Amino acid sequence: xxxxxxxxxxxxxxxxxxxxxxxxxxxxxxxxxxxxxxxxxxxxxxxxxxxxxxxxxxxxxxxxxxxxxxxxxxxxxxxxxxxxxxxxxxxxxxxxxxxxxxxxxxxxxxxxxxxxxxxxxxxxxxxxxxxxxxxxxxxxxxxxxxxxxxxxxxxxxxxxxxxxxxxxxxxxxxxxxxxxxxxxxxxxxxxxxxxxxxxxxxxxxxxxxxxxxxxxxxxxxxxxxxxxxxxxxxxxxxxxxxxxxxxxxxxxxxxxxxxxxxxx
Length: 264
Prior knowledge:
Order of helices and strands: EHEEEHHEEHHEHEHEE
Largest sheet: 4 strands, mixed
Number of helices: 7
Shape: globular
CATH class of the largest domain: Alpha Beta
CATH topology of the largest domain: GMP Synthetase, Chain A, domain 3
Structural class: alpha+beta
CATH architecture of the largest domain: 2-Layer Sandwich
Number of strands: 10
């Protein structure tokens, strides 16, 4: 994963920008501070924003140069669990740290389980959650480089989605935590979808964002959106980035963090 550079009034603000751009959580990235923020004369003149270099934590793969996409899964109506993965010991270091050198990064990757094994662990755990809910559903995974998509498909799964996707968000957080534990804190990015809810929401949100962009262009005024989660903010950022004449920024603090669309 290549490095990206972001700026902000503080290191925390610059990191928030990067997390929005990447659509991930803080424990899934590593960064280095290129420049600390500096106060100017009387707090106004000659100041400088903090600047960071950020990237996703590297993930160990069986074939690092092989771009692949595959599916695997099981129907929860029958069959047992065929595979277990032994947890690895956590990697050393704090969450907010400078990137490791090549030698330590190589050692870290050797201790990290492959993306395929991470996907298996995520799939089995998600299948266990489905059983705990008492549902009958098919749980599959799809790997696209360093991204693991878990799909839960079946009938009457609304309880696993919850109001505005709140339960689904919690399920995704738990599955991510399992993968992070199994990989020693350097797991792949994991996304969970139930009954295609996320895919439908992304399409609807992108279409809604396009209408808001047209409004901003017509009025020439910035438009703040309602607070939303990191995954939804990423959809807005990505949609606006493909349209000339407008730009976005995220403001506020979670869980009330929101996107502002403004003329470029």
